[in-house]
């Protein structure tokens, strides 16, 4: 910041406050509120135990009245739980938006000062007399940029204050309301779900989150905040399901196929538990970006949908679909990949709000024999289509730029969904792809120029040639035609699941990757990471 005379006419209100603001402190405060949920649950569980202790030795009207009273107290406690998560959401979002506004302010001030202007400690902008004079448009542009950052901060502050005031009023009046008379049916689309939610009162919404979290947590079209509150309420139950499965599998069987199967299943459950614990640790972490739990299912190999940053508020949203062997055990690591794209977005676009979603809501292949087929990708298509439609329906303000990224087998999931159902997306990105189920980008129903792909030079996926081609190579191996065929295959444009999306003939756009193998697209020194972030931001 440069010193200088103050001009009252161009002093942006709140400049000094934003410059001194500590966005992280708001997130930390929100985490403290959320952490109150633990003691509240413990107290509620103690009341449940008290009711259980009363029943065996005490009966009659007085006993029934005491049990009802204790039950009412327990309900009062559990009804507060969603509100504690909501306070955390409000303060975390305030911190994130203030952080974005502060980053934009810093960028605008740095740009102004590098251009020969002076910005004083109140935000006033003037030409620097010690440097080449810059007047007129440059000053106007700098003032507008600074005011824009302050406008973002002011809007965030007013919205957070309003939401907290509403919560305070709800606490005084009581959390429980008359439940709504109907619910969306199983076939309701995200747009219908969104309209239903918009027609409810705030009290009815909170009642549904607290009393029907399993329903609310999985409804595409609902706000990320509501789904996050509901799914966090279910975290303990989800972990208990895995613990029960582990306990049932801990008893050895006589040696043989059944015992071998038991050991495999036990190892899978323990891996899911480690994955769930890692995910829970990330959900409990403070700081930006806040994590939103949009879906969690421990059945089978386990599924999870987690957003970093609120996708309903972001101007750019990435949905990342991982590939083969991905399950609940892998969720923390896969979420880390999404986080790296988001971090690069923040570096490339200071002040821009972006969010990244890990979409692991399908049965990914566990073995190569499964990954050789399209069934699991095609089965995932309707759910991915519905999820993307839900992001569109729940988004606030101007539509976000939506990007869907598939890695390895996940690229086939994305391609099949776009081909068969359409995706509510502005761009598709494929990395390390074995083919996406179509022979040309136009078959993906996307805007021209918004289908992107990258394949590392040393990615083994390049060897995933079509079955007939592999058979031909095996037949001619050891013959004089073998070496020539190998050279031709190295420059082929067909992979296991169709045309290579990184080849010129596919009709998409290519971005580079360094030799980082099949899983190194997210490595910090790989240009592919920059490429993915620029596509997400629309650059």
Summed up:
54% of the residues lie in helices and 10% in strands. With 539 residues, the protein is α/β, with parallel strands linked by helices.
What is the end-to-end distance?
A: 30 Å
Query: Major sheet, described briefly?
Result: 8 strands, mixed
Structural shape: globular
Poorly predicted spans: 1-13, 470-477, 484-491
SSE pattern = HHHHEEHHHHHHHEEEHEHHEHEEHHEEEH
How many beta-strand runs? 12
* Count of helix runs: 18
State mean pLDDT (0 to 100 scale): 88
How would you write the strand order of the largest sheet? 3-4-6-5-7-8-9-12
Name the beta content range.
Answer: 5-15%
Describe the structure.
By secondary structure, the protein is α/β, with parallel strands linked by helices. 54% of the residues lie in helices and 10% in strands. It contains 18 helices and twelve strands. It has an eight-stranded mixed sheet. A hairpin with a 2-residue loop joins strand 10 (494-495) and strand 11 (498-499). Helix 7 packs parallel to helix 9 (224-233), helix 10 (235-248) runs antiparallel to helix 11 and helix 14 (375-394) packs across helix 15 (409-420). The longest helix has 54 residues, at 61-114.
């Amino acid at each position: 910041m440069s010193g200088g005379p103050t001009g009252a006419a161009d002093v942006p209100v709140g400049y000094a406050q934003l410059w001194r603001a500590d966005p992280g402190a708001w997130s930390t405060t929100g985490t403290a509120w959320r952490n109150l949920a633990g003691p509240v649950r413990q107290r509620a569980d103690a009341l449940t135990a008290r009711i259980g202790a009363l029943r065996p030795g005490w009966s009659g009207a007085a006993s029934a009245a005491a049990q009802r009273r204790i039950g009412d107290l327990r309900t009062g406690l559990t009804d507060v739980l969603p509100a504690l998560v909501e306070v955390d959401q409000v303060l975390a979002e305030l911190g994130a938006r203030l952080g974005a506004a502060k980053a934009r302010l810093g960028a605008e001030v740095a740009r102004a000062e590098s251009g020969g202007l002076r910005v004083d400690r109140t935000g006033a902008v003037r030409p620097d007399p010690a440097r080449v004079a810059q007047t007129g448009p440059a000053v106007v542009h700098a003032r507008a940029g600074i005011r824009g950052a302050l406008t973002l901060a002011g809007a965030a502050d007013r919205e957070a204050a309003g939401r907290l005031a509403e919560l305070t009023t709800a606490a005084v009046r009581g959390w429980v309301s008359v439940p709504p008379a109907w619910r969306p049916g199983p076939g309701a689309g995200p747009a219908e779900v969104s309209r239903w939610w918009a027609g409810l009162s705030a009290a009815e919404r909170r009642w549904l989150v607290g009393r029907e979290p399993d329903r609310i947590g999985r409804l595409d079209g609902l706000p990320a905040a509501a789904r996050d509150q509901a799914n966090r309420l279910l975290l303990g139950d989800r972990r208990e399901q895995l613990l029960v499965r582990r306990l049932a599998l801990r008893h050895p069987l006589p040696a043989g196929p059944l015992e071998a199967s038991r050991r495999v299943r036990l190892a899978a459950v323990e891996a899911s538990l480690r994955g769930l614990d890692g995910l829970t640790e990330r959900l409990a972490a403070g700081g930006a970006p806040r994590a939103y739990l949009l879906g969690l299912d421990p059945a089978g190999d386990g599924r999870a949908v987690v957003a970093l940053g609120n996708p309903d508020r972001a101007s750019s949203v990435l949905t990342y679909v991982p590939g083969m062997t991905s399950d609940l055990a892998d969720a923390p690591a896969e979420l880390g990949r999404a986080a790296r794209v988001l971090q690069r977005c923040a570096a490339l676009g200071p002040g821009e709000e972006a969010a990244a979603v890990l979409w692991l809501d399908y049965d990914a292949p566990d073995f190569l024999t499964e990954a050789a087929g399209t069934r699991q990708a095609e089965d995932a298509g309707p759910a991915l289509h519905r999820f993307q439609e839900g992001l569109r329906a729940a988004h606030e303000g101007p539509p976000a730029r939506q990007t869907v990224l598939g890695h390895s087998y996940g690229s086939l999931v994305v391609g099949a969904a776009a081909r068969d159902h359409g995706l509510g997306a502005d761009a598709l990105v494929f990395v390390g792809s074995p083919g996406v189920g179509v022979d040309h980008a136009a078959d993906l129903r996307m805007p021209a120029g918004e289908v992107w792909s990258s394949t590392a030079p040393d990615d083994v996926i390049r060897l995933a040639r079509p079955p007939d081609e592999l058979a031909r190579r095996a037949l001619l191996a050891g013959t004089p035609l073998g070496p020539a065929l190998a050279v031709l295959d190295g420059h082929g444009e067909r992979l296991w699941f169709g045309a290579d999306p990184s080849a010129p003939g596919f009709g998409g756009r290519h971005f580079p990757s360094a030799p980082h193998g099949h899983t190194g697209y997210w490595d910090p020194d790989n240009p592919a990471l920059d490429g993915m972030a620029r596509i997400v931001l629309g650059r």
